[in-house]
Amino acid sequence: MKDLNLVPTFLWFLLLFPLHKAVANGVTPEETKQLRDEVREMFYHAFDGYMEHAFPLDELRPLSCEGEDTLGGYALTLIDSLDTLALLGDRERFTASVEWIGKNLQFDINKTVSIFETTIRVLGGLLSAHLIASDYATGMRIPSYDNELLDLAEDLARRLLPAFDTPTGIPFGSVNLKYGVDEHESKITSTAGGGTLTLEFGVLSRLTNDPIFEQVTKNAVRGLWARRSKLNLVGAHINVFTGEWTQKDAGIGTSIDSFYEYLLKAYLLFGDEEYLFIFQEAYSAAMHYLYNDPWYVEVNMDSAAIVWPLFNSLQAFWPGLQVLAGDIDPAIRTHTAFFSVWKRYGFTPEGFNLATLSVQHGQKSYPLRPELIESTYWLYKATRNPRYLDAGRDIVASLQYGARCPCGYCHISDVEFHKREDHMESFFLAETVKYLWLLFDLAVGPDNLVENGPYKYIFSTEGHLLPATPQISLLQEHCSYFGAYCNRDSLKEEPIASDKSADSQEINGSRVSEGWVRTRFPLDSSSFKASPVSGLIKGLCPGLTHAQKYGISYLASVDTAHEDNSAKQKDITVQSQAIVVVSDQISNQSLSGDGNDNNVKESTEREPESDPSQS
Predict the structure, then answer these.
(1) What SS3 state is found at 190?
(2) How far apart are CA 131 and CA 120, in angstroms?
(3) Which three-class secondary structure string do you get for 398-421?
(4) Hey, is 468 helix, strand or coil?
(5) Rounded CA separation 377/382 (Å)
(6) Is 348 annotated as a binding residue?
(7) What mean pLDDT do residues 210-234 have?
(8) Fewest CB within 10 angstroms: 5, 51, 473, 603, which?
(9) Nearest 5°: CA angle at 440, between 382 and 595?
(10) Tens digits of residue pLDDT in 488-512
């Protein structure tokens, strides 16, 4: 994309490097320890405030020291906080919380809830805590625990399943936990809402040996991707019955953000190449059409015409995702730009207009979001550059000075005047303080489950810890698309047809040695068996389309009346690169990070916000 030329160059300079900004003094080792302990105290100030004044209601009102039910009326903040308690090593409160939830929580209630929020906050919180409480290797095993949280998670997920009964496979946005989908339920949902369910549902399938949960969420992703534009962009909102895009603004923020996130993370956690391929194409398109170094804009998904030169706070997760993808340089530049907005106001507003260099009207709030902190943590983990500790120190100071309230931490309703609002989202304890604490603990010399534990962890979009255990991460390579090449000797059943290769031949840009055969499997993944890990994830050749590889047909947009003529005249493609990843043949080995940090997984690598209550 060409430069925007939205504002004079010197104004960009002033935004990125304000004249009043002094050079920060580096954070000393002793100060790092103090900051880590201060963040721990921040967590307990908010957690104790919730338990004393709001529990068992969903969330805390930190100014008035009261509680409120905001999602389903089932102790939401406690569920969302479970793995943070475990991460901090608080065995007593973790055990007491798990036991209370196991004895008292139930989902057979007449409540209509958000599929997205319930999945990432409640289902994810239950699964993460179950995996910690049930495993001696985590050091937090609860002797009396008998899979109560897993049973609750399965019960909850089954109550969400009716939402997936749509012609497109893309779920409704809401479902009643007792009666299913209401006949008057809206048929419009967001891309993130339909595409950010794969981790939690996939983990549940592996823990219960029931494939239905993983199948429905994967079908939802396929349903969204099949309806992408010819530029490989997806819109913000879609009709789950007709598949028509009702909002065609493409971006990396509101309503779309975690769709990208879960494509890569589902591959990292489960080893499913289909997610990697979709991520490759989606990421390439985003960097080509949305990236205006160092910012990101929103464009029409069909024509790529800029429709919204806006930084919104949900975009701030992107540099962290780029770290996981191994694309560090643009991540550094974008984080610098995003953090300059924080420095200007003390917080990031929901929207910052890049044309006027001012807070977007109606988007002045900061609801304690974690995304910028998350990216700060990942960039420090990848680079060990002390500038990210400086950033973390500034963020702690802002939260302590501007958001701390008598019983917790308050939303900031106006970042320009630091007005407070009497509400604290559960994700403040699930993510915001978690990433801050991990940042400083990593700098001190990590002693926690994530950095030193028995597994590599993937963070869900709610910051929940999902371990790459042998039971969860695939140990076998699946031939799940036409054109896959599998070792003939390792197949458990004969392929329907095969074309034996010569001694050695080059196919689709990948070297295929003797003993490899081309197999034709049915599209239904349940109809074939996995072959053992071959030690090679075959190249995904750019010569085949996604439809050819996975049997997903390209569906033209239903609304073509206003299609941009210039887009019709161009044959624009986004080039995909072939990927060849060599894997260890150790039975429980999954893709890992570089040798300098074994806990960062490596590849070539929220709901959407209509209101600030969604993370």
Answers:
(1) strand
(2) 16
(3) HHHHHHEECCEECEEEECCCCEEE
(4) coil
(5) 9
(6) no
(7) 98
(8) 5
(9) 30
(10) 333 333 333 333 333 333 322 322 2
